[in-house]
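sanity check both lines:
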Amino acid sequence: MNLMLLLDRLAAVCTTRLCELRQHAQRRPDGGYSTEAIAVTAFLVALALAALAIWGPKLLDKIRGMQI
């Protein structure tokens, strides 16, 4: 019986905290824009690293083969 009371209390605390977090997220003036910006920036960085991985060795070979 004591375990059930503890689980009920835990569920109540979790529900209350979740509601507080949701309200805080809705009050934010940026509306989640910063998260979106971080996701887009991470995608662009990954794209740049992929391009560097593909073209980097070819570019280095061309540079090493140049004679001035």
